[in-house]
């Protein structure tokens, strides 16, 4: 298993409120529903199992329409299991099964089926999964939305929220809050629709934000294809323990080959295992492809550029044309051109802290630590000259940390260069 740990583009121009809100909402929904799902699932499963066994042993019994639909769908989706349930020589499933086998009276058997049908109906109405998760056999319009906020366990939740944070925060800074919010909702629905299309009639409830998260990965691939992603290779429990201790196998890979590799693995798993793996692989594929195509459209239609200009207008710290131009070049990945523009500007305005702050950020994105360190020193000098002692102290502390890491040989973790007066992530 490959676990992404971080990527290069971690700095942002303002707080990623939509990404934070999405994580918080998912956590609140999980805490509110997980206990109910854990309590309801065994009870509902028992009722369903008894209905199937009784219908298989006594097909002549009458069933309520919703129960008949459930039994027919199961019979079509799992013919092998159905034949096994019909066999008189199969193993006894539980005490209820042993008791039913001893009953020959048709009236008593019909009463048992009617009782199970009432329990089935009550369970359907009370079940969180039946009401809000997405079931391809009988999809509900609201479930295209609500299924994205339900999770089956802590590991499922943490995995999805970590992926959402890694990709969502920087994409929100790039595309804006409204764009990301709408994209998360539409892509979650598109992933669910893809899963339903390739698994028609499935009775297994689908839940989780995986489709929306996969969509963010597709958008990340289009927007930041050359960005290096640090990944941990987990081969088992021991390597997972080593990872928690800060050890283990780690490597960096560009998004343009790592993310397509993940997509191919999802396609392979979906084609080989289908719905039997317990993972909605086709929801991942659908969300990834849909959002990647939408990201291409946004990029080449000019929408992304307009959104970026609007964000810059809100957070920019200067009106000088050269600073705005250099910022745009940096966001497009043209770091060398941005540095060239800023150097010309600094010749005219050597005391511009804004220009030097931007130079500092660009060197950080380039992972040019020596140049970044020199930029920190220059910025500290300018802050002292301007008698901004708090900012100068921050610069000095950062310089000391850089020197400490350099001398001790500690790996330089990607962090956020501080820019006074604006939010960072």
Order of helices and strands: EHHHHHHHHHHEHEHHHHHHHH
| Shape, per Cα inertia axes | elongated
Helix content: 55-70%
The mean pLDDT is: 82
Main sheet record: 3 strands, antiparallel
Distance between the termini: 27 Å
The number of E-state strands comes to: 3
Separate helix tally: 19
Strand order of the largest sheet: 1-2-3
Low-confidence region ranges: 410-425
Strand content: under 5%
Task: Give Rg in angstroms.
Answer: 28 Å
Q: What structural category characterises the helix and strand content?
A: mainly alpha
Which key features would you list for this structure?
69% helix; 3 strands; 425 residues; disordered C terminus; single chain; mainly alpha; three-stranded antiparallel β-sheet
Task: Please tell me about this protein's structure.
The C terminus is likely disordered. Helix 1 packs antiparallel against helix 8, helix 9 crosses helix 13 and helix 16 packs antiparallel against helix 17. By secondary structure, the protein is mainly alpha-helical. It is built from 19 helices and 3 strands. It has a 3-stranded antiparallel β-sheet with strand order 1-2-3.
Short description:
With 425 residues, this protein is mainly α. Helix content is 69%, strand content 4%.
Topology summary:
Layout: E1 2-7, H1 17-57, H2 65-77, H3 79-86, H4 95-101, H5 106-126, H6 128-132, H7 143-146, H8 154-175, H9 177-198, H10 210-223, E2 228-233, H11 237-244, E3 249-254, H12 255-273, H13 281-300, H14 303-315, H15 321-331, H16 335-348, H17 353-365, H18 369-385, H19 389-408
Antiparallel strand pairs: 1-2, 2-3
Helix pairs in contact: 1-3, 1-5, 1-8, 8-9, 8-10, 9-10, 9-13, 10-12, 10-13, 12-13, 15-16, 15-17, 16-17, 17-18, 18-19
């Amino acid at each position: 298993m490959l676990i992404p740990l971080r990527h290069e583009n971690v700095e942002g121009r303002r707080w990623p409120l939509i990404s934070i809100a999405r994580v918080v909402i998912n956590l609140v929904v999980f805490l509110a529903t997980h206990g109910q799902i854990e309590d309801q699932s065994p009870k509902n499963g028992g009722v369903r199992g008894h209905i199937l066994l009784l219908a298989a042993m006594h097909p002549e019994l009458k069933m309520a329409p919703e129960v008949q639909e459930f039994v027919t769908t199961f019979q079509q989706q799992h013919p092998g299991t159905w034949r096994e349930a019909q066999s008189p020589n199969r193993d006894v499933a539980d005490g209820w099964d042993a008791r039913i086998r001893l009953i020959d009276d048709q009236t008593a058997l019909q009463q048992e089926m009617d009782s199970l049908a009432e329990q089935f109906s009550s369970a359907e109405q009370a079940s969180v999964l039946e009401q809000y998760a997405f079931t391809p056999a009988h999809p509900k319009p609201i479930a295209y939305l609500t299924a994205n906020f339900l999770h089956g366990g802590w590991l499922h939740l943490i995995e999805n929220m970590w992926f959402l944070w890694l990709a969502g925060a920087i994409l929100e800074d790039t595309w804006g809050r409204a764009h990301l919010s709408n994209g998360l909702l539409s892509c979650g629905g598109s992933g669910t629709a893809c899963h339903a299309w390739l698994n028609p009639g499935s009775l297994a409830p689908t839940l989780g934000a995986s489709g929306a998260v996969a969509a963010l990965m597709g958008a990340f691939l289009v927007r930041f294809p050359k960005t290096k992603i640090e990944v941990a290779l987990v081969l088992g429990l021991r390597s997972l323990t080593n990872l928690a201790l800060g050890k283990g196998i780690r490597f960096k890979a560009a998004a343009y080959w790592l993310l397509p590799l993940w997509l191919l693995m999802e396609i392979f798993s979906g084609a080989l295992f289908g719905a039997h793996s317990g993972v909605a692989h086709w929801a991942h594929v659908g969300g990834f492809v849909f959002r990647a195509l939408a990201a291409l459209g946004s990029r080449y239609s000019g929408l992304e550029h307009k959104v970026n200009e609007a964000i810059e207008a809100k957070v920019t710290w200067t009106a000088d044309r050269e600073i705005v131009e250099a910022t745009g070049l940096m966001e497009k990945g043209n770091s060398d051109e941005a540095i060239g523009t800023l150097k010309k500007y600094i010749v005219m305005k050597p005391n511009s802290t804004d220009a030097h702050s931007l130079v500092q950020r660009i060197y950080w994105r380039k992972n040019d630590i020596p140049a970044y360190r020199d930029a920190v020193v220059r910025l500290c000098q300018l802050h002292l000259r301007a008698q901004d002692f708090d900012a100068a102290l921050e610069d000095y502390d950062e310089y000391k940390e850089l020197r400490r890491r350099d001398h001790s040989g500690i790996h330089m973790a990607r962090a956020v260069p501080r820019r006074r007066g604006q939010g960072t992530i």
